[in-house]
Amino acid sequence: MTTSASTASPLLLPMPEVPARQRHAADGGPVAFTSGHHFALAGPGDPAALAEAATVPLSVILQVTKRCDFGCIFCSETMPMPDPTLEELDTFRANLAGVRRVFLSGGEPLLRRDLPEIAAMFADFIVGLPTNATRGLAVAPRLAGKVAFVNVGFDGPRATFTRVRGDYDKALAGLKALAAAGLPVSLSAVVLRSTLHALPYLCQIADVLDAGKVKLILPLRKGNALGLPEREFITAAEAADAFARLAELRATHDWRPALRMTRWTPATEGHMIVIEPDGTAQAWPVYDQPDLFLRLGSLRDEPVTEIWDRYPYKANHYAKYLGGSILTAARGGL
User: Fold this and answer.
1) Burial of residue 204, with CB atoms counted within 10 A of its CB: 0-12 exposed, 13-18 middle, 19 or more buried
2) 280-284 sheet: strands from edge to edge
3) With the C-alpha atoms ordered 37, 65, 221, 269, is the resulting torsion angle positive or negative?
C-alpha cells in the first residue's frame, strides 16, 4: 500500500547537537567555567597563587584570520597576514595542550569556510568564538555542538550599532541564527562616551536572547581607534560609574546575563595572550609597546609551556579571567 503525498509524514531532518550550557562548569579543579561563559574559582583559592603554580595560561586568543567584513570605528587590528593552514593550526593546537579555553578569533573567523572543521579540531578545549555574526545564517548549523559559546560583538540598538560597527540587520539575523542552532551566545561591546546611553538596551537584548554574559571593554589607542575623538575615551572612574548604574538597572529589571567590564589599568595590562595567524604569541595590551604587543615566542616552534615561562603578566592574567581585576556581576536567575 502506498501513501499519498497529501498524507505522507513530513521529512524528519537530524537535529544539530546542542552543547550543554554548563558542559565545562566543573571538572574537579580549582577553576570552573560557568554558565556566564567566564571562569570562576570553584572554591576557596588565591588567583595569584594559582598563577604562580600554573604551567599554562587559562585562556588564549588564536587568530584564525585577520580578514574582516566590518570596519568598526574602534577596531585595533592593523597588520594583514595570510590565514594559517589547517596543518599550521594543528601544530598550534598540539602546542596549546593544557590550556583550558581557546578563542578562535579574528578578524572575523566566520569568513573562513572551514571554520567548523577548525572548531572540531579544537574539541579538547573550551572553544569560544568571537564574531560579528554576519555569516551566521550560512554557518550556524555546521557549528552546533562544536563551540562552547559564541561571543557576538553587539553595541545596542540599530542607530548605535550602525554608526560604530556596520549592518545591524545582517548581524542580528546572524545572531538569531546562531541562537536558533542551539549555540549559547554572549554579547560584547566596546564602550565609548557616545555609546554609554545604549548599554541598558544592550542588556535588554542580551536578556531576551538568554545570553550568558554581556562583556564590556574600553577602546585601545591602536588601529581605527586612533581616529576616534579624544572625548570618546572615558576614564576608568567614569567606566566604574557607568557599570554601577548598569548593575542597578540590571537588578531593577531582573536582567539575567552576567556583566563584566574590563578597564585598562595596571592590573589588566598584558593579561591576554594573543596568537597571531603566523603563530607569534603576544602579550596584549602592553602599554609601553608601540603596537601594544609584547612578543613572547611562537607556537610554530615551541609549546605554550615555554611561552608561559617567559610571560611577565601571569598574575594579571589569572586576576582578570577570574574576575579579580575587572568589574563583574554574576549571572542571575540560577
Assistant:
1) middle
2) 294-298, 280-284, 272-275, 59-63, 101-105, 126-131, 149-153, 185-190, 213-217, 258-262, 327-329
3) positive
Number of domains in the chain: 1
Q: pTM, whole model, 2 decimals?
A: 0.90
> In sequence order, what are the residues at sequence separation of 6 or more whose Cβ sits closer than 8 angstroms to the Cβ of residue 49?
none
* 223 half-sphere exposure, CB direction, 13 A CA radius: 16
CA 239 remoteness from chain centre = 20
Mean pLDDT by 10 residues, the chain (334 residues): 38 40 54 96 92 97 94 83 97 98 96 97 98 94 96 96 94 96 97 97 96 97 92 97 97 97 98 98 96 97 98 98 97 83
Domain that holds residue 296: 31-329
Q: From CA 154, how far away is CA 215, in angstroms rounded?
A: 10
Residue 83 maps to which CATH number?
3.20.20.70
| Residue 60, strand partner residues | 102
